[in-house]
Amino acid sequence: MRAAVLRAYNEDLVLEDVPEPVCPEDGVVLKVLACGVCRSDWHGWVGEHPRVKPGQIGGHEYCGEVIEAGPRAAFKPGDRVVAPFILACGSCPSCQAGAQNTCPNQRLPGFVEPGAFAEYVAVPFDHNLSRLPDSLSPTVAAGLGCRVTTAWHALTGRAAVQGAEWVAVHGTGGIGLSSVILANALGARVIAVDVVDEKLTHAAQHGAEVTLNAREGDVAARIKQITGGGAHVAIEALGIPETVNASLECLRPLGRHVQVGLPTGHTARMEINMSAIYQGNLAVYGTRGMPSWRYPSLLSLIETGRVDMSPLIAREIGLSGTSAELRAFNGPTPPGVAVITDFQS
């Protein structure tokens, strides 16, 4: 099969013919219909993700059609499914408690095992998968496995956002834009913060009531002025000190900060304003992925038309275009995300 393989950090992925995956006994092999290119892939590509090594086939935001099923699999050939990027074992105490995204036995295609920058991908623990609704295109569905699910769980499973609350989203890349769209659907009043005016305009068109360019003065002070005391919830969607501290400092007393952006490599440890947390009695939540049992709440929101995630998709690309998308994350990116839909070009 054709795959884009990481052979050296910061170099173009190499398009290679590699063996097709072996079907797991408790899982399936998917023909990949679509796969997003995510900033987390970029962290691996530049060598800052601790688990991604040369030889890795990336790609963790995928949906596909089952072409082979193992003897203990729940799905069968022909089923179209969407996958969370964290595949949980289902039997450990974390899984039994409903926190599958913290499973210590998790499997991670795209980071540790071969991912979906390829024609086919093996998916163990297929009880994590959800059927792809007929009304949802594979292109849009590909973003659900990471960006959209992570944003949904951050807003509802961690911060418990309520209608009419102010939600400040720091960074409007894939997760940030997803947070803007979903927070608006929940009835929140959304502030989008970025350094790219084009992305702010895009966010304003899709749910942001207020947009702020972080290069134009003290963001936290402006948010406190606009909201009459500070945001109730702040979503940090980039994982760098500047946005983490702006997120903490923009909150009102008893506000909730959710760390969604991935701090890894040189940002794994950073200096943050602990005084803001202490003085404001703030709650600080970490979040990564979403428990698979929460898929129905998200899919029903999309299926019933309460939310449209299609504005998240900026462009469809061929597999050979993956390297260019990864390089683009080296600087500020344009609005929306790229999804691989052609695995032959």
Automatic annotation (TrEMBL):
<comment type="similarity">
    <text>Belongs to the zinc-containing alcohol dehydrogenase family.</text>
</comment>
<dbReference type="Pfam" id="PF00107">
    <property type="entry name" value="ADH_zinc_N"/>
</dbReference>
<dbReference type="InterPro" id="IPR013149">
    <property type="entry name" value="ADH-like_C"/>
</dbReference>
<feature type="domain" description="Enoyl reductase (ER)">
    <location>
        <begin position="8"/>
        <end position="340"/>
    </location>
</feature>
<keyword id="KW-0862">Zinc</keyword>
<dbReference type="GO" id="GO:0004022">
    <property type="term" value="F:alcohol dehydrogenase (NAD+) activity"/>
</dbReference>
<dbReference type="InterPro" id="IPR013154">
    <property type="entry name" value="ADH-like_N"/>
</dbReference>
<protein>
    <submittedName>
        <fullName>Alcohol dehydrogenase zinc-binding domain protein</fullName>
        <ecNumber>1.1.1.1</ecNumber>
    </submittedName>
</protein>
<dbReference type="Pfam" id="PF08240">
    <property type="entry name" value="ADH_N"/>
</dbReference>
<keyword id="KW-0560">Oxidoreductase</keyword>
<dbReference type="InterPro" id="IPR050129">
    <property type="entry name" value="Zn_alcohol_dh"/>
</dbReference>
<dbReference type="InterPro" id="IPR002328">
    <property type="entry name" value="ADH_Zn_CS"/>
</dbReference>
<dbReference type="InterPro" id="IPR011032">
    <property type="entry name" value="GroES-like_sf"/>
</dbReference>
<dbReference type="InterPro" id="IPR020843">
    <property type="entry name" value="ER"/>
</dbReference>
<keyword id="KW-0479">Metal-binding</keyword>
<dbReference type="GO" id="GO:0008270">
    <property type="term" value="F:zinc ion binding"/>
</dbReference>
<dbReference type="InterPro" id="IPR036291">
    <property type="entry name" value="NAD(P)-bd_dom_sf"/>
</dbReference>
